[in-house]
Amino acid sequence: MKIIKRINDNAVLFTGNDISLDGFVKGNDWEARSFTSETVTLDDAELPDDYVSGGAWAFDGTWSILDQSAVDVKRAEIRDNLASQVREIGKEKRNGGTTVNGLLINTDADARSLLLASKVNSKASRKIVTKGGKAKLTGAQMIALVEAVDDFVQSVMDREYDLLAEIDAAAYADLGTIDINSGWPAQA
């Protein structure tokens, strides 16, 4: 991160989206030369809540954005990255298994398909192999197990949906306050 000086003597925070050659920096519709940190320091100019590295920002007592498109792109990247992390956590949680009536049940896509098929083709009894062993269940117990797994998977998807909606609705400055690691249903 460099602090540079605009031709019109506003201080500009430059963070790397433009070209710098021998202390001379040129961006869209502006030029600047480097100056020492004795002239302006970050302590003199506290960064705004919506600051994002990327693009160019001017300071003349208050901060303003000089290159909104670069800032918008960077903010979108940060928002997309956070959403990708939520999707990855959701996938891990959905596939991580759960415990139903003391049985450790796989919840990956294959296991859910097999469980759903056993519910559709209900029989008087079923033998199942779980993550932690094996069990013989009545038809009613099997249906209850399938519904419990479905409820677990749905609760994971509900949390994922809520977090993605929160990310979409949040102001940029509030994205860092979203706790993507809490609020998920308990796993096995």
What's the layout of helices and strands?
Blueprint: E1 2-6, E2 11-14, E3 19-21, E4 24-27, E5 30-34, E6 56-59, E7 63-65, H1 68-95, E8 98-100, E9 103-105, H2 109-120, E10 125-130, E11 133-138, H3 139-169
Antiparallel strand pairs: 1-2, 1-5, 2-6, 3-4, 4-5, 6-7, 8-9, 10-11
Helix pairs in contact: 1-3, 2-3
Structural overview:
With 188 residues, this protein is an alpha+beta fold. It has 2 domains: 2-66, no CATH class; 78-177, no CATH class. It has 3 helices and 11 strands, in the order E-E-E-E-E-E-E-H-E-E-H-E-E-H. It has a 7-stranded antiparallel sheet. Strands 8-9 form a two-stranded antiparallel sheet. The chain has a two-stranded antiparallel sheet with strand order 10-11. The longest helix is centred in the C-terminal third of the chain and has 31 residues, at 139-169. The chain is rod-shaped, with a radius of gyration of 27 Å. Residues 1-44 have low confidence and may be disordered.
List key phrases describing it.
188 residues, 38% helix, 2 domains, seven-stranded antiparallel beta sheet, 3 helices, two-stranded antiparallel sheet, disordered N terminus, rod-shaped, alpha+beta, 24% strand
- Could you list the spans in which at least 5 consecutive residues all have pLDDT below 50? 1-44
Find the structural class using helix and strand composition. Answer: alpha+beta
Overall helicity: 25-40%
E-strand count: 11
Strand content: 15-25%
**Structural shape:** rod-shaped
Biggest sheet overview: 7 strands, antiparallel
Order of neighbouring strands in the sheet with most strands = 3-4-5-1-2-6-7
Report the span from N to C terminus. Answer: 45 Å
Domain unit count: 2
Sequence of secondary-structure elements: EEEEEEEHEEHEEH
- Output mean pLDDT: 74
What is Rg? 27 Å
* Total helical elements: 3
